[in-house]
Amino acid sequence: MKKILSAIKTYWRFALTLVVGAAVLILAFVFGQDTAAQWLVSIYGAVMALLMLVEMIQTLREGRYGVDILAITAIGATIAVGQYWAMLVIIVMLTGGETLEDFAGSRAQRELKALLDRAPQIAHLVRDGKISDVKVSIVKPGDILLVKPHETVPVDSVLVSDAAEFDESSLTGESLPVEKKTGDSIMSGSLNGNAAVQIRATADAKHSQYEQIIALVREAESQPAPFVRLADRYAVPFTLISYIIAGTAWVISGNPARFAEVLVVASPCPLILAAPIALISGMSRASKHGIIVKNGAVLEKMNKVTVMAFDKTGTLTEGELVVDHIDVVDGASEDKLLSLAASAEINSSHILAKSLIEFAGVKKIKLHAAKNIREIAGDGVFANIAGDRLVLGRIDFLRQNKIKNLPIDSHADCAASIFVAVNGQFIGHIAFADKIRRDAKQTLHELKQLGIRETVMLTGDRQIIAQKIGKKAGVDKVFAELLPKDKVKIMRELDRDHDIAMVGDGVNDAPVLALADVGIAMGARGSTAASESADAVIMLDDLSRVALLRKISRRTIRVALQSVWSGIALCIVLMIIASFGFIPAVIGAGLQELIDVTVIFNALRAHKN
Prior knowledge:
Strand content: 15-25%
Number of strands: 22
Radius of gyration: 33 Å
């Protein structure tokens, strides 16, 4: 019942028109009150025309235009010549078309619920050896806070504890947890690792990184790109043609009824109906393929896009670090190095350790019992295996432990590396990379075939790594080492000259998703905030759906335009016939219905593959 009441409240004009129509039918055919029915329709038509006139004036003040003036004239003309049945049909179709358009274009207004829900509300304040929970809003620079395992850092701060790991992927796009030491800065919104740590606030919540991201999204959403409804582009020429034909018929015949008869068949219902129905059909087709399009205008905008921007981590890549390659010194064995490293890391919870163990399992590498394992958080591991002393971890960690023959190059082109030494001698390293999606290169190639002129990648990752991923995926331009505000700046620059779509999945992508002409979120495993800010959400973990969305948008707009043009052509033919007095107003309204049905069936083709 609530849903019905809500629908009536939203589409009250169409609902009221149906009620008036039913009342008119009862008055005219049941009680024989034809005059009363005529007065009821005339009064209702005048009220509707007045409402449309007020809205039209407001629309013109905003610098936009539409088909409303022709509809108002058609209603006024039928009132003037007493063709109330024709007027009723016009109003039914106008309000029905408006209802369909609202349905196709409606989008619930969101108050950044996802971002705000994730934003920490409570901080654990450490004072005089006691811990108390306080509101994040009262935290001040200099306060010492406790961050428990897997909690979000509430404010920008520096690390007080000895060492810790933080997941900053939702802020910077960096897939590897960042290792921090005492005194290192930590951005709010970062996710703490497996151990509780103490931090010292360097900013209050209002001026911290996470709150700035929220502000960026608000700013982007408050400045939407200008957009004109598809049907409105043809409104002015169609209206002028209609007036010219109707006026000429009136002047030549000397009969004002001829003016009304022409405008009845010139009613802009095909214009109003064609695009919304095609867009609804296109949205429905997209949803069948796991793509949620939030409003019909998205398909129109997607059809116009010429530049596609992509986030790296979790969008063009899998977002998971995997073993990329193994380099060994002369005389060493890759299998032995892998066996020793995996054996030493067998009990570690580090993300690289897990990936290493999985890789060793796939390679069916035999592991050995490790003794005296000692892990230094954020640096590396000591272990004894079969009488050998192992040291493995970061290259700086091995240098600190006087390992010989270390390479000068730290292999910065890899997302991460584990360097391995046995009995004080360096024997090789295992390089990890963020695995590119299998369908990334094919998707970008297909987008080019679908009319995308340029592809770019925006990422917070290091330049050398970003360039490597971009080259593999076939991206035209790469922008790296970006914070959210940097992405927004680049997006604004690109948007000046191009219609641009952005594809991303993290919190750091939310501002640019909202700012882009079309924001597309990879919602299968991405951030809820990104999905909330986007215009379309791909619910499957499948990048190729981006190309499919482009394909659906192109077909949808093609079908919509065909429907609009066919409706215009049929209306013009009928207007010419009506100008000679061959089509009475009521018959014209009926013929207009046939045009509407034709347009509707043609527009529904957008649902088909």
